Amino acid sequence: MQTYLMPITLEEAILLAFEMLTILVTVATVITALTPSRWDNRMLDRVFQFMNLIAGNVGQNRNADDR
Prior knowledge:
Layout: H1 10-34, H2 42-55
Helix pairs in contact: 1-2
């Protein structure tokens, strides 16, 4: 069975990129809301700082334990 990749239009590519970005931000928001913002492990702390950035938890919008 052969599978052919169908070429997509620019409009479809933009919509797909927007959907993927929306999913990424939503997942990052859920993960950062359910986990603490600070970790003892330096690598995990960096990862979750990046996740907070993706989720939009910057400036006045922070996790509850950041206040």
